[in-house]
Amino acid sequence: MKVVVTKDYTEMCKLASRIFAAEITLKPDCVLGLATGSTPVGMYKELVQMYNEHRVDFSHVKTVNLDEYAGLSGDNDQSYRYFMNHNLFDHINIDKANTNVPNGTAADLQAECERYEQVVAGMGGVDIQLLGIGNNGHIAFNEPCEEFPEKTHVVDLTQNTIEANARFFSSMDEVPKKALTMGIGTIMKAKKIVLLANGPKKAQTIYDTVYGPITPKVPASILRLHPDVTIFVDEEAGALLKK
Ligand code: F6R
Fold it and tell me: In what order do the strands lie in the sheet with 153-156?
């Protein structure tokens, strides 16, 4: 695991966007694993800017997102499909048919998880996976638990995550309580992983991820067993690493 401490959020986003752009240049039809949340917004802006400057071409790129809230359709402005369209896909030359987000309104959520797992496998796996991290160490919506979940599954969000995500909704009651998420096994199969974290609220979980025991109680800690992981943190999220 490589850890890069950047001066600030802007530098973190610039460095991470260059890694994704390089992947696309080397393999124009690569499969990008993408994340939502506040953390990757700056990186997506950088990629849009690089596209506008003709420095990256998304026409053959395929994407799979990590997760989606159960019960929210893609036109709901809190859904992760909406987020991806709004922050990235609507601004680049990607074919939306090549972009995948779990369907949060599927009648049978379990069947949707199985379908999604097949979608990822059918694309030949993820070439480079972007991750954020929850304050509690979750990656995608794999919450702290007793065993690492392997495949795409339906998850009950923890109170900690519901409270953290309430900032995007008009009230806590509106935050969905369930989500569909890639499993830890699905994520660990990606050829490369880039995790981004910024701000003081992430400092303890970044410390636990890098130095603590490898345990499903800190889901991100398993990344230490992956052969190609780079963690980018700004100085605040990396503050405890220096002690
Ligand atoms: C989002 C996701 C989540 C977020 C995490 C951090 O697709 O999978 O694991 O990466 O909750 O969210 P932010 O970036 O909002 O702090």
Answer: 67-69, 178-181, 153-156
